[in-house]
């Protein structure tokens, strides 16, 4: 196992730019040659570069500009023993990777993308805050139909119908717009459940109830006394 070589440089604003080496003047170790090395360079404008090589078929290096554009590469040996190397860039164009093992874009797909990029950007006529937004359309088929109308401020009303898998015709109407949202109505759409009105049941006990209780109590007392008296007389 070879010895590691290191380079760490921090660029400080206080150091004169005339006396400080330019970024390309550093003796930066190379990576990707299976020799152990690592480096890291940070500049006062936020740009940096770093890299390392493990010496065991794995390496990585990356550098970035002050505007955030990134360029780098990395490599390793896969389980089948193949050496994988990837070069990439990242920035306003997204992340773009290149490598022998990465599938190439089909020419027809590339031509379609180029054609799309050459076209003028689509401008939605309804996206602006002003202007007349009115339109209408209608179509009918054997198993479905639809029509829709929009007024100048963008409020939409419409309807559609179709035949479901059971042969039943489903019909719906809808409206949408500012302050409305999207509201749809149809016979098979559940309606909003209205809350049940609360009822308070009050039970009133009149004076006759208390009187009845008193009478029942008195009757039991009298009956007990009579029974006791009869038993006493019989015993004597």
From TrEMBL:
Signal sequence, start to end: 1-19
Keywords, comma-separated and alphabetical: Cuticle, Signal
GO CC entries: chitin-based extracellular matrix
Positions with biased composition (Low complexity): 197-212
Stretch list, region Disordered: 197-236
Compositionally biased residues, Polar residues: 221-236
Annotated PROSITE patterns: CHIT_BIND_RR_2
GO molecular function term, any single one: structural constituent of chitin-based larval cuticle
Protein name per UniProt: Mucin-22-like
Organism of provenance: Hirondellea gigas
């Amino acid at each position: 196992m070879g010895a590691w070589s290191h380079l760490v440089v921090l660029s400080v604003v206080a150091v004169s730019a005339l006396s400080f080496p330019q970024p390309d003047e550093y003796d930066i170790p190379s990576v990707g040659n299976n020799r152990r090395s690592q480096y890291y360079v940070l500049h006062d404008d936020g740009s940096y570069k770093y890299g390392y090589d493990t010496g065991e078929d794995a390496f990585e290096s990356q550098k970035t500009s002050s505007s955030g554009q990134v360029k780098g590469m990395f490599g390793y040996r896969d389980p089948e023993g193949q050496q994988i190397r990837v070069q990439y860039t990242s920035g306003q164009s997204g992340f773009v990777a290149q490598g022998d093992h990465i599938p190439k874009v089909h020419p027809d797909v590339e031509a379609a993308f180029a054609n799309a990029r050459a076209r003028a950007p689509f401008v939605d006529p309804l996206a602006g805050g002003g202007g007349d937004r009115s339109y209408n359309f209608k179509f009918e088929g054997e198993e479905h139909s639809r029509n829709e109308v929009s007024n100048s401020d963008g409020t939409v009303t419409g309807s559609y119908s179709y035949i479901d898998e059971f042969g039943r015709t489903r019909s719906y109407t809808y409206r949408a717009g500012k302050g409305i949202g999207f509201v749809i109505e149809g016979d098979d759409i559940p309606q909003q459940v209205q809350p049940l009105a609360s009822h308070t049941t009050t039970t009133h006990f009149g004076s006759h109830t208390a009187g009845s209780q008193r009478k029942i109590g008195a009757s039991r007392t009298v009956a007990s006394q009579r029974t006791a008296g009869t038993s006493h007389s019989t015993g004597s």
